[in-house]
Here is the input.
Amino acid sequence: MPAAAAPWLLLAVFSGTLISLQARITGELAAGLGGDGFAAAAISFGSGFAVLALGLLVLRKPRRGAGLVLSDVRSGRLKWWQVLGGFGGAAFVLTQGLTVGALGVALFTVAIVAGQVTGGLLFDRMGLGPAGPQRPTRRRVVGAVLVLAAVGLSMADKLGGGFPYAMLLLPLVAGICVSWQQAVNGHVKNAAGSAYAGTFFNFLAGTGALSAVFLVHAVATGLPSRLPAEPYLYLGGLVGISFITIAVATVQKLGVLVLGLCTITGQLAGSLALDLLLPHGDTQVTAATVAGVVLALAAVSVAALSGTRTSRVVATAPGAARPTADPCPASSSREG
Here is the structure.
């Protein structure tokens, strides 16, 4: 790549670190709410939706895009379930609130990436995304196996003790949900002709799902006794919107493949840095955790560098509309 692309490369890597930051914020918000990850997820996703809804009131092009999506759903050109991609982002953010405090950001991120790789291979083969069925290449399969091995390596010194390793299944499943989200969001973005409108529908679906889950949980256990006083704990939605905006801006400069690699690099490196420099709770970074992150980075590179057609990457966050139509096994994620 030419030297002029260097600033865009750095910006794309930075967007990945923002995804890790959102995971930390949501985890700490859940802790501040007395361990209520359901309330934390609803607040994080809902704040992003509120900002986007206000913007939709004043921006003409996104409003037109939203109308096009509704028209396509009514006519059958767009399936109703394809507008529900936000459910994948909701699963991602809910898992943040429920597990980051126990697993740490680094191990949580490795597990999410493992789920994304697995889901990406599956949904590519099914042809769920607008690109249609995509044959899994040898490198992508090897990359998926390596990422799963990275999860095992990260947990090597935790098994057999009091570590809640069964909880690791939640981010694994959430990663698969994120891959599904990326696939269906490609259809919504194409129908809207606007990344903003697609993002709005994503946040709308995710906020609705998380609000319903939170209300059911609140009826069963009660509302949180207090709200944390730290203002930064309520910035999860804005952080999500920020890394979505960066992805939309940089994809035109770098292409989806390089953007995806940069985003994952930033996400994994950022998660490790957060656990090392700003530890939270009882989570500890061990040599096995570091080795697992390094192996996951190598696996993502192997999976992505597997050919032009079968390795296109959607590099935005869970909870957001994707700037391209293809699902990717190794894209970051997450919310909005």
Observations:
- Residues 307-335 have pLDDT under 50 and may be disordered.
